[in-house]
């Protein structure tokens, strides 16, 4: 995989605390600078150059003031420095202001420069101080008093250049070389006279600066290599994190497709015991079994239908249509449990949020769903020129819900209510929805048209009075009519 170096990593959403206290304009400016590596580098180079200029400005002034004789100015010039040096305690031991006034033939010889007594007196008068005194004008901070200061300043500037890790090492090298060349040319050519007793040897200065440049360049290379490695690791970590998140989302979706949402949440929870059996007791669950008994007649393995695959394709479409209907908001109470062959099983009221013990909306939703899938099969028959018949059974009661299996876990429900619901299907009639007395009592109150089938024999249960659900609730139809009427009226008003 080819990775672009210094590609920009996702920016942190939160500003550091210091930046948060800053005015909005400053925040914007700093984030604009930080977001562009080129701008940041240019800014860093600019800062280093400004520092360098600041450090050598005094040196330039020193040269421009050389001919002036302004004692007491901030920049004492070179000649005054030399004069002060000559008048230091080492050269004139017994000279005080009074002595000098009375000594007419005093002369001072040092470094080949001869000052006659009147000149010395004149100088001393101008200085108006006692020579050899630490606080005299000769000591008042002339830059030349400690000229190596410039070399140290330049070294500090070079250190500041090394501090900026974001500058490429090659740019750093160019910057360091430029600083060295500029400074050394000043020391060697324009300020050559500062050498000797004033500067440390020019050769030492050259050696020190070259040595520092090499050291800083090696340091810059190492820092850059570390930064690149750091960047690649960060990039790799980001990619791996994205991959893990993607995988987690995929797993979540997969589990949500296999298990009901609330059960999937339980299984994705990290602090659950791995061998723990998931089960829960649910009261008043409405169970539906819907089967297509004549599908087995339709299913034949022939060469013409690709050994039965085309039959399975049609069954798959029917089941998928049933699944799709559950996406509708009004069927949110219902959870598909499974489909076995041509039998579809669903339950409503498995969680608190999908159970309505007051208005039994989960039961009415199941009744509507049963009517809806019957219509859907009619529709499939019309379009596939088949004559599939559906048989539906509905019951209500307590169940135990749980997940069975470690490798291919399956959510299922068990209990007498489930067995009876299955019996309502198996003992039912084609194209009819058979319900138990408990379901009848709920649906009847809600305005659903039901007809009593009579007493039937149910295996294991004995005689049972059952009912057929014949259509939708009058209340719901009225509600639908009024809402569609309102919609039409609204549409009319709109036009
Ligand atoms: N969770 C379930 N999923 C699918 N079908 C179920 C489930 N629970 C019960 N049934 C079905 O309910 C029907 C009634 O079961 P019951 O235990 O009363 O009698 P059975 O003797 O086991 O059934 P059968 O006589 O059909 O073999 C069975 O056909 C069974 O397949």
UniProtKB/TrEMBL annotation:
InterPro entries in the cross-refs: A/G_cyclase, A/G_cyclase_CS, Nucleotide_cyclase
Keyword tags: ATP-binding, cAMP biosynthesis, Glycoprotein, Lyase, Magnesium, Membrane, Metal-binding, Nucleotide-binding, Repeat, Transmembrane, Transmembrane helix
- Which residues span the membrane? 38-60, 174-194, 200-218
Question: Keyword Transmembrane helix on this protein?
Answer: yes
Write down the top EC class of this protein: lyase
Which Pfam family, any one of them, does this sequence belong to? Answer: Guanylate_cyc
Q: Which reaction does it catalyse?
A: ATP = 3',5'-cyclic AMP + diphosphate
Q: Which PROSITE patterns match?
A: GUANYLATE_CYCLASE_1, GUANYLATE_CYCLASE_2
List the subcellular locations: Membrane
Annotated protein name in UniProt:
adenylate cyclase
Source organism of this protein record: Penaeus vannamei (Whiteleg shrimp)
């Amino acid at each position: 995989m080819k990775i672009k170096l210094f590609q920009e990593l996702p920016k942190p959403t939160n500003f550091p605390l210091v930046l948060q206290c800053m005015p909005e304009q400053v925040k914007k400016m700093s984030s604009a600078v930080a977001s562009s590596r080129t701008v940041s580098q240019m800014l860093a180079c600019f800062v280093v150059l400004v520092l360098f200029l600041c450090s050598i400005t005094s040196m330039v002034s020193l040269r421009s003031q050389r001919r002036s004789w302004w004692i007491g100015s901030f920049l004492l010039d070179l000649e005054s420095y030399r004069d002060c040096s000559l008048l230091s305690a080492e050269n004139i031991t017994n000279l005080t202001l009074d002595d000098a006034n009375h000594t007419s033939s005093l002369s001072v010889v040092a470094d080949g420069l001869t000052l006659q007594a009147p000149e010395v007196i004149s100088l001393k008068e101008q200085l108006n101080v006692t020579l050899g005194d630490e606080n005299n004008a000769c000591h008042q901070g002339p830059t030349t008093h400690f000229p190596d200061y410039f070399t140290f300043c330049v070294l500090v500037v070079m250190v500041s250049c090394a501090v900026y890790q974001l500058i490429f090492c090659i740019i750093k090298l160019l910057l360091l070389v430029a600083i060295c060349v500029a400074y050394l040319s000043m020391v060697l050519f324009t300020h050559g006279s500062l050498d000797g007793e004033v500067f440390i040897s020019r050769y030492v200065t050259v050696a020190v600066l070259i040595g520092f440049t090499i050291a800083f360049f090696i340091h810059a290379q190492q820092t850059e290599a570390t930064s690149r490695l750091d960047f690649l690791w960060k990039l790799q970590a980001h990619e791996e994190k994205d991959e893990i998140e993607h995988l987690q989302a995929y797993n979540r979706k997969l589990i949500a497709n296999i298990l009901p949402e609330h059960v999937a949440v339980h299984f994705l929870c990290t602090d659950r015991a791995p061998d723990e059996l998931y089960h829960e007791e649910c009261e008043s669950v409405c169970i539906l079994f819907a089967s297509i008994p004549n599908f087995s007649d339709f299913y034949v393995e022939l060469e013409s239908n690709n050994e039965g695959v085309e039959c399975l394709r049609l069954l798959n479409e029917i089941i998928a249509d049933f699944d799709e209907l559950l996406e509708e908001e009004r069927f949110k109470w219902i959870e598909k449990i499974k489909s076995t062959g041509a039998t579809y099983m669903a339950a409503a009221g498995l969680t608190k949020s999908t159970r309505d013990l007051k208005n039994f909306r989960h039961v009415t939703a199941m009744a509507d769903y049963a009517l809806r899938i019957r219509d859907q099969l009619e529709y499939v028959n019309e379009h596939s020129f088949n004559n599939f018949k559906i048989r539906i059974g509905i019951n209500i009661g307590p169940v135990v819900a749980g997940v069975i299996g470690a490798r291919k876990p399956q959510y299922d429900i068990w209990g007498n209510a489930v067995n009876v619901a299955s019996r309502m299907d198996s003992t039912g009639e084609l194209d009819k929805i058979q319900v138990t007395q408990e379901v009848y009592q709920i649906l009847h109150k809600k305005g659903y048209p039901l007809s009593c089938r009579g007493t039937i024999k149910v295996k294991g249960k004995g005689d049972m009075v059952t009912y057929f659900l014949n259509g939708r609730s009058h209340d719901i139809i009225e509600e639908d009519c009024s809402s569609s009427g309102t919609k039409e009226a609204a549409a009319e008003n709109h036009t």
